[in-house]
Amino acid sequence: MPSGCVGTPMDCSDDKTCTFDKCEAGECKNPLKPGWCFIQNKCWQEGAIHPDNPCLECITSHKIYSWSADDLNSCDDSNSCTENDACADGQCIGKKVSCDDGQPCTADFCAEGGCQHEWLDSVSCEDGDLCTLGDICIDGICYGGETLRLCDDFNPCTLDTCDPLEGCLYIPAELPCEDGSLCTVDDVCFAGFCQPGESAVCDDGNDCTTDSCSPFVGCKYVNNANPCNDGDPCTLGDLCMGGVCKKGPGKADCEDENSCTSEWCAPYAGCQYAPLVGAKCSDQDGCTFGDHCEDGACAYQWKMECGDDNPCTDDVCDPAFGCANVLNSNPCDDGNACTTGDQCVNGKCTSGLGKLDCFVKNPCAAGKCDPVKGCVMTPLDGKPCDDGDVCTSGDQCLGGECKPGGKPAYDCDDKNPCTKDWCDSKLACQHQNQEGLCDDLNQCTKKDHCEEGVCVGQPVTCDDDNACTVDMCDIAQGCLHEVIVSAFCQPQIVIDYPPRAASLVGPPYTVTVKGHVVHNAGPVAWVNINGTDVAVGKDDTFALPLQAGQGMNLIKAEVYDLFDGHDRVVQSFLMSGAYVPMNVSQPQVSMIPDGVMIFLGQNVWDDNDPAPNDFATLFTYFFNSMNVASMIPNPLYENGSYKVVGENVKYGKFAVDIQCINGGIHIQAVLPDLYLHLNAKSKKWYLPSASGDVTASKLVVDMDVMLSVDAAGNVKAVMTSVSADVQGLNVTLDGVLGFLLNWIVDFFEGTFAGMLEDQVEATLKDQLPPTLEKALEDLAFDSEFSVPPLFGGAQPVTLSMKSKVSSLSFTSTGGVIGLSAAVVTPKKVDLTSPGTITRSSCLGPPVKFKFWMLDEIEMSLYDDFLNEIPFAMWWAGLLTIPLDAQALGGGNFAQYGIENLSMTAKALLPPIITDCTDNKSLALQMGDLELKAAFVMFGMPVDVTMYASFEAGLEVGVVDNQGVTELSMAVTEVKSVELEVATVSENLVGSEDTLRMLVKKQVLPVFLEQITGDALASFPLPAMDMSGMIPGAPPEAKLSMTPMSEYRSEGYTVITGTVHE
């Protein structure tokens, strides 16, 4: 065994694989092995990754007792709402996932499981169409608003349109315009600018004025001294003086060099010539005698006679030499009719050698020659003779000829149409059978023909193969076809297009009416449509283009068949450039842009009266609500030597003036009598303290505020300039040492004044625009009114009026506030419609409405807005009305044999208001009023369906309803009614005209009487509650109108008036 001191080895093992186990100097040591980390009592080899965080790693070169961040490692934060996860500073950080699906009507977010897209409803959006306003989300889809962007650059030389991608476009157009010069007419637009047209014709028709034109004055007429004509032909050298033509000194020369007239000049009539009766004259003709004046000319009394009564001389007269008789050798007559070949020889007529032969071979005449008469034939009248024809008898001479006797020798007519009868001049009467057609005088046979000298025919078949006729034959008249009166046998017009009660939209505004005719009885060739005959084709169809007008258009078609069967159709359709849908849940869809416009004159903005019914007074409350004292910093000034404090700040009340300017308003607010007490406390024992007073006569604030409505329909007030000016500032310091503190005076006059001015300006820029925006937006109205039923015990209907500011326009005369307005109500009618009709400028070029500015406040209501009232009445079912005889005024129908009358009236189209009429007057039009009636007529039950269309006058005006000023729409006289009896019981077929007159004279007048005279609808004129517009405004602050007059302009009804005190 070994000897000596023996110890037991120490166990230095720490059971860790990452350490060396050593015993040194009696102590256990466990240093960390290279390439290992010891973290949180665990060994980790170089490059080991944190088990829960892949972004932490054992990096021995960096740390060996804690984890090191390794941003090069990849990681996953296990969050589905992040992407592109990466290590950063030891943390796994992902980029937030973008869940934006590009759809404005979804709420995009990330939740467990990834991106979620919830549909949004009733949230504003942008549908990508720059031409729509008020776009709204419905079930996650962005629908374009019904309000269209108003693109108007107020340039008459551009066509203002809206492109869905580009927005408002202003396209130069060649349109009529006004260039501002009174010296041009027919100005026309070119390249977007108004170019002068033809020069104005300045001609006053007065030669004594020089006509010219001034662009600002127009035609000018300046007196001149030009030669002229005073209208009196007896004066010469006339001259203009004082704008009037004065007679000249010269005299007219009236000499006509006619010895048979006397001449003179009559004032304003000219030269006059009177004939000299009987005066001697000479016509310079030697062949006349007794020359004298006659009717103003030289005439002769006798003409020289040169005739010598000798046919063998030629007699002439020469004006210079007189008479001459020249021998001739002409044929002549020696006076003996029994000689021939007489001729002039040496001035005498010599008998010829021939003799006249008077012998005739005529048993009825004898001839001889008479020297005076020549051959004379003597008729041997009454002498019997023979004309050589056996068919004549009693022949005699007459006038030298043998004439047949008075009676034929034979009557050869055997009264048989099948023989040819004649008299032969040699053989007497002859009769020969003949073939061919004949007439047996019986209209009930056909193909009559001759057989062996006898007329025979075949029986006629009268069946016309027409189920609508009773066929028969009459010997005298032949086949007869009596028409059966029934619905089947009456012709029927069917209008295939447009359908009844259609609402059509253009352009184009030409509507081709298409239809066909059902005719079971007889053929038809024409259909008359609105006065035009239209040919019916072989397929029984017809077509006619009609130029439609805005509003109700009638189609009146009428047809007659061959048997006078008759049908008449009356139906209507609406035509417009657009329709506005009715949506009670989203009334903005139904709003008419600038449907109500209000002109507020300068006096409404500032009437210099403290009553709270103008904007200047209201904004006085706003300015006086500002705490000016809080805008003064305290301490006012402080440095190492002094602390200056302001105390007891006082000031008066603001006075506000508002002036309308182009594009907005100018506001001036004056705050008088500013005062504060100052206390300058010294911080140094050797410096004096002081106190004093600071006063200012007034603080003047001036600003221009431009007012507009942005694309989203929000009022925008932008201050383009604002200035605050402290005027009359004065600083007074107390004590004899005050002069040592003049730097305080300099501070207040410089730094303090500017500081207060800046603070006031900043406060106004921050507070005034939203206050003004709210004030203007609060001008919109939201109210309800009730419309009673037209008949009986039906319940009244409540209509809601909604509005929103849609446009603002300001000039120095005042401001025009446009309101998008709608009248809506829940739907109860079982019909469909695209919505309220729009005026569409009567389907013509657009015309800009302008107020006439007759009074200080004017309210205009566009026809499109007013149209929503009768539309809403129709939409709510007020125009579907059950009627009986009692409801129809207890009409006297018994005289027509009518009992137990009941009827339902149903307007298939909404009534419309329009001034697009022939005389431009306002009218109410109702098309296709369906009347279904059942009654007993003369003991027979009758069912009938009719359609009526009518037009009546309409007056829109102001009425007093028990002290409340209301706008009333009253129907006046009915101007036209068209009625169609569409279907009728079989037992009354053929009586349609009678029924139509009965309904037109008895039923319709009673029905129409219910909607004429009294107001069809009325509602209070909107009063603008201004009490909530401005903080501090009194509850009685209202802006309402006292109506004065009314006028119509470009589709607007305008009520003018003054501010109600």
Question: Outline of this structure?
Answer:
With 1061 residues, this protein is mainly beta. Helix content is 8%, strand content 45%. The strands form 31 sheets. A 7-stranded antiparallel sheet has the order 66-67-68-58-70-81-80. Strands 59, 60, 61, 62, 63, 64 and 65 form a 7-stranded antiparallel sheet that branches. Strands 71, 72, 73, 74, 75, 76 and 77 form a 7-stranded antiparallel sheet that branches.
Question: What is the CATH top level name of the domain at 606-705 and 714-757?
Answer: Alpha Beta
**Binned strand content:** over 45%
Oligomer: single chain
Helix content, binned percent? under 10%
Integer-rounded radius of gyration: 58 Å
Mean pLDDT: 83
In angstroms, what separates the terminal alpha carbons?
Answer: 135 Å
The CATH topology of the domain at 606-705 and 714-757 is what? Bactericidal permeability-increasing protein, domain 1
By secondary-structure content and strand pairing, the structural class works out as mainly beta
Strands of the biggest beta sheet: in what spatial order?
Answer: 66-67-68-58-70-81-80
H/I helix tally: 5
Residue stretches low in confidence (pLDDT < 50, at least 5 long) are: none
Report the CATH architecture of the domain at 606-705 and 714-757: Super Roll
Overall 3D form:
elongated
Largest sheet: 7 strands, antiparallel
Number of strands: 81
